[in-house]
Specification:
alpha/beta; single chain; 323 residues
Length: 323
């Protein structure tokens, strides 16, 4: 069966003409791997993602290596991406937890950073060893310094739709913390469904509540995990609301080391397949992206969880048996 002309493009009304994919596989994906991926492989992965047309690729994290040992090579990795950064066609955001992390990132020339907050107290304590208010206080000088340096700042907010310890998270609680993050000076807010429990109605309700609080849709990105198979339907609900920034992970890599019920992120290939069918531009070459994820899956020693990667990648040929 030929898939050259698939999926057929059938646009739907009231959807964005273009979506920016915020690729998180190299950071959010690889940080959850049991084995550390060699620095050279990470660099090649990011170069391949850029060649496939992804314009925003989250490169690494400047969290202390004690907490995320898989990304302990940030200082070694980032200089290997200088050619991408110098081209100015691809943004390479990095995660920074505090002022020390920001200093490390700025010293290497990072021009886009992200801070990582929580909508719930339990996850804030487990992930940041602080209360929600204490974590916001920690981010304040980080965001202020970054803005003074004319560095783009993204605010991640985890547990926006549910928490494994606290259960359902009230929309008003999420809005309060999200608004506080934006008030610090973040340019963009990424709403994280960290354990993948969101459903489309919940997504629409939270987006509307954020708009009502003064957070514009143009500043919002969505970050869905596919634990219950809802990531694409939730993404479509966000697109229908007007969201144009969607986080995804090549090959569906990822999870969360501090929330064991979190499974992989929305696979970038699955997202691109849907967007292609809707006639929404992304600038991403699906064939090149699929080949990249298949290549990385070989390095990781396991098949990609992305349904699209599996569908478009031919199975390995069986060895012939000679008598």
């Amino acid at each position: 069966m030929s898939t050259q002309s698939l999926p057929m493009k059938v646009p739907a009304p009231d959807l964005p003409a273009r979506v920016r994919i915020h690729e998180v596989g190299a950071r959010d994906g690889l940080q959850n791997e049991k084995e550390t991926v060699p620095t050279e492989v990470k660099a090649e992965f990011i170069h391949r993602l850029a060649a496939a047309g992804l314009s925003t690729i989250e490169a690494t994290s400047f969290v202390h290596p004690k907490w995320v040992p898989q990304l302990a090579d940030a200082e070694a990795l980032f200089p290997l991406l200088d050619d991408i950064a110098e081209a100015r066609e691809v943004s390479l955001p990095v995660l920074v937890p505090n002022e020390r992390g920001l200093e490390r990132a700025l010293a290497l020339g990072a021009r886009s950073i992200a801070v990582f907050g929580s909508a719930t107290e339990t996850f804030a304590a487990r992930n940041l060893n602080r209360t929600v208010d204490e974590s916001l206080a920690m981010f304040e000088p980080v965001v202020a310094r970054a803005k003074a340096e004319k560095v783009q700042v993204r605010g991640y907010l985890s547990m926006c739709f549910g928490d494994p310890w606290e259960g359902a998270v009230p929309v008003a609680q999420v809005v309060k913390v999200a608004k506080a993050l934006m008030d610090l000076g973040c340019d963009e807010l990424s709403l994280g469904d960290t354990i993948g429990v969101a459903t489309p109605g919940h997504v629409r309700e939270l987006l509307k509540a954020l708009n009502d609080s003064g957070v514009p849709t143009s500043s919002i990105g969505v970050h869905f995990h596919d634990t219950y198979g809802q990531a694409l339907s939730n993404t479509l609900a966000a697109l229908q609301h007007g969201v144009t920034t969607v986080d995804a992970s090549a090959g569906g890599l990822g999870g969360c080391p501090y929330a064991k019920s979190a499974t992989g992120n929305l696979a970038t290939e699955d997202l691109v397949w849907m967007l292609n069918g809707l006639g929404i531009e992304t600038g991403v070459d699906l064939a090149a992206l699929t080949a990249t994820s298949a290549w990385l899956a070989e390095h990781l020693g396991r098949p990609s969880p992305s349904r699209t990667v599996r569908a478009l990648t031919p199975p390995p040929s069986s060895p012939s048996h000679k008598e």
